């Protein structure tokens, strides 16, 4: 797997190089197109094949790598979860002026054997999730934030104030943020979160324990699940519906909106994650590889 992850790293580095000239130009389309086109072209040149299991949604009329695309030259024995660029809007509007605690713009991929990455039955949406380092404690998406944080702190043998919560999309996670503030937990609310979320599960990139909490994107959650699994962490995730209409749309295509997934259910096969920093932050600009293979 390591050779394939190195190929993916090369592809993400190509996307990074393509994006740099467009940083701060104000066009999210230019940013998305530069990253996606470079990534697709480089992946197509691979001597092995992969399927996109989950990627960008087709419903926003933006460039992307889309579910069920086949890339490379076969045999198609692997599949990927992909976010060509997380943080398109900050990349377009702020470029290198983006402060990393407000989110690091990154490109990221997860790799696993074909048929083992979570495959949404409907279009890509959002998930509520909680993820933390380590194993051996009971978390619940239905428990209060105070209960979950106490369980995590006890397992990590630290005070809860020694944890930092990464909570993306503050407009959707307002109630959670208020609850975390009440128990004195430091919080980061980045404009784009995947880079910080991945860094929380890659050794030596952050200087204290970080947890991921709240509603975030579905593709980003799957990439995160691979990193959590490869690092020996814990993750729970469940589809989050914006309203009753969206819930019914999921139900119509046979999706169980009540199901809670663990990290090893979102990514079932032996996996790896590759990420490249585009703006400043904990994910290095030369990229980082995390794999279950030691």
Task: Give a brief description.
This protein is α+β, with helices and mostly antiparallel strands. It contains nine helices and twelve strands. A six-stranded mixed sheet has the order 2-1-3-4-11-12, with helices on both faces.
Task: Produce the secondary structure layout.
Blueprint lengths: L1 H18 L8 H17 L4 E6 L15 E3 L3 E11 L1 H6 L12 E8 L12 E7 L12 H12 L6 E4 L7 H9 L4 E2 L5 H6 L9 E9 H14 L2 E7 L3 H9 L8 E2 H4 L5 E6 L10 E4 L3
Parallel strand pairs: 1-3, 6-7, 6-8
Antiparallel strand pairs: 1-2, 3-4, 4-11, 5-8, 5-9, 9-10, 11-12
What would you say this structure looks like, in words?
This protein has 294 residues and is α+β, with helices and mostly antiparallel strands. It has helices at residues 2-19, 28-44, 88-93, 145-156, 174-182, 194-199, 218-231, 244-252, 263-266; strands spanning 49-54, 70-72, 76-86, 106-113, 126-132, 163-166, 187-188, 209-217, 234-240, 261-262, 272-277, 288-291. The protein has 2 domains: 2-117 and 271-291, Fructose-1,6-Bisphosphatase, Chain A, domain 1 (2-Layer Sandwich), CATH 3.30.540.10; 126-266, D-Maltodextrin-Binding Protein, domain 2 (3-Layer(aba) Sandwich), CATH 3.40.190.90. It has 9 helices and 12 strands. A 6-stranded mixed sheet has the order 2-1-3-4-11-12, with helices on both faces. A 6-stranded mixed sheet has the order 7-6-8-5-9-10, with helices on both faces.
How many structural domains are formed by the residues? 2
Kindly identify the CATH topology of the largest domain: D-Maltodextrin-Binding Protein, domain 2
The Rg value, from CA coordinates, equals 18 Å
| Biggest β-sheet: strands ordered side by side in the sheet | 2-1-3-4-11-12
Which H/E pattern describes the elements?
HHEEEHEEHEHEHEHEHEHEE
User: What CATH architecture of the largest domain would you give?
Assistant: 3-Layer(aba) Sandwich
* Helix segment tally: 9
Mean pLDDT: 93
Global structural class: alpha+beta
The low-confidence parts are none
């Amino acid at each position: 797997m390591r050779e394939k992850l190195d190929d993916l790293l090369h592809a993400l580095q190509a996307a990074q190089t393509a994006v740099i000239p467009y940083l701060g130009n104000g066009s999210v389309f230019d940013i998305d197109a530069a990253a996606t086109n470079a990534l697709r072209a480089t992946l197509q040149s691979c001597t092995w094949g992969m399927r996109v299991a989950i990627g960008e949604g087709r419903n926003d009329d933006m460039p992307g790598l889309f579910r069920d695309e086949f890339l490379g030259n076969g045999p198609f024995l692997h599949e990927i979860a992909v976010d060509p660029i997380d943080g398109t809007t900050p990349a377009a509007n702020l470029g290198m002026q983006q402060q990393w605690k407000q989110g690091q713009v990154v490109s990221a991929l997860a790799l696993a054997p074909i048929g083992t990455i979570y495959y949404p039955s409907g279009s890509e949406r959002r998930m509520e999730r909680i993820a933390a380092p380590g194993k051996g404690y009971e978390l619940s998406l239905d428990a209060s934030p105070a209960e979950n944080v106490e369980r995590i702190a006890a397992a990590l043998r630290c005070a809860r104030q020694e944890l930092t919560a990464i909570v993306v999309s503050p407009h959707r996670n307002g109630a959670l943020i208020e609850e975390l503030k009440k128990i004195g937990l430091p919080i980061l609310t980045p404009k784009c979160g995947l880079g910080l979320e991945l860094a929380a599960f890659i050794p030596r990139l952050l200087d204290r324990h970080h947890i991921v909490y709240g509603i975030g994107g579905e593709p980003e959650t799957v990439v995160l699940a691979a990193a959590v699994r490869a690092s020996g962490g814990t993750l729970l995730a469940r589809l989050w519906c914006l309203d009753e209409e969206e819930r019914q749309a999921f139900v119509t295509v046979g999706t169980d909106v009540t199901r809670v997934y663990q990290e090893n259910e979102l990514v079932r096969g032996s996996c790896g994650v590759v990420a490249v920093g585009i703006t400043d932050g904990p994910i290095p600009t030369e990229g980082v590889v995390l794999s279950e293979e030691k």
